[in-house]
Specification:
Blueprint lengths: L1 E2 L2 H11 L6 E7 L3 E7 L6 E8 L5 H15 L1 E8 L9 H16 L6 E6 L3 H9 L6 H36 L1
InterPro entries: RNaseH-like_sf, YqgF, YqgF/RNaseH-like_dom, YqgF/RNaseH-like_dom_sf
Keywords: Cytoplasm, Hydrolase, Nuclease, Ribosome biogenesis
Protein name: YqgF/RNase H-like domain-containing protein
């Protein structure tokens, strides 16, 4: 498993061709939970999948869960939410995201897969604003928050990559 630039994963999907379209998994990595979202087969729309419980002792189990999702959903890569800073300084959340991805890589169970980091700033705040009026039970609220933060991360990535692709196609036509 290796880290690549955002457009590299998207290009990998395009090279697969329409006969075997790969999908992407969005990750919202938190201290205790990892929210998951998956793209559709055309890589246009992100949908919530689930939330994994994160502990220091269960990284092997999480890697196995990812293996299952990879085969079941035809995944080709991960889009990992990352709290980029305007000033280039990394905060604690950024460090823990990198540590999580490094621990996953070290398991060796996801070799051959690529991942990229994508700006997650404000995704949780947007989801929080939508959920607040619903007065959900705290556990239900947290689960939905994490899943839909992952949706926001992945959808932002997909929108950006599809815009970039369309822009490149238009510049070739001209």
């Amino acid at each position: 498993m290796k880290s690549v630039k955002p457009f590299e994963i998207f290009q990998k999907i395009l090279k697969n061709g329409s006969t075997k379209q790969g999908r992407l998994l969005g990750l919202d990595v938190g201290y205790r939970y990892v929210g998951l979202a998956v793209s559709d087969t055309r890589n246009k729309i992100a949908s919530p999948v689930s939330v994994l419980v994160r502990k220091k002792t269960n990284i092997e189990s999480m890697a196995e869960d990812f293996q299952t999702l990879i085969s079941r959903l035809s995944l080709v890569g991960f889009v990992v939410g990352f709290p980029f800073s305007l000033h280039g300084q990394h905060n604690l959340e950024a460090v823990q995201v990198r540590i999580f991805m490094e621990e996953l890589r070290k398991t060796g169970k996801l070799d051959g897969l690529c991942y990229t980091y994508w700006d997650e700033n404000y995704t949780s705040k947007c989801v929080e604003a939508l959920l607040h009026p619903l007065n959900l039970h705290p556990v239900e609220h947290k689960t939905i928050m994490d899943k839909f933060a992952a949706v926001g991360i992945l959808q932002g990535y997909l929108d950006n990559m599809n815009r970039k692709l369309k822009s490149e196609e238009l510049s070739i036509v001209k």
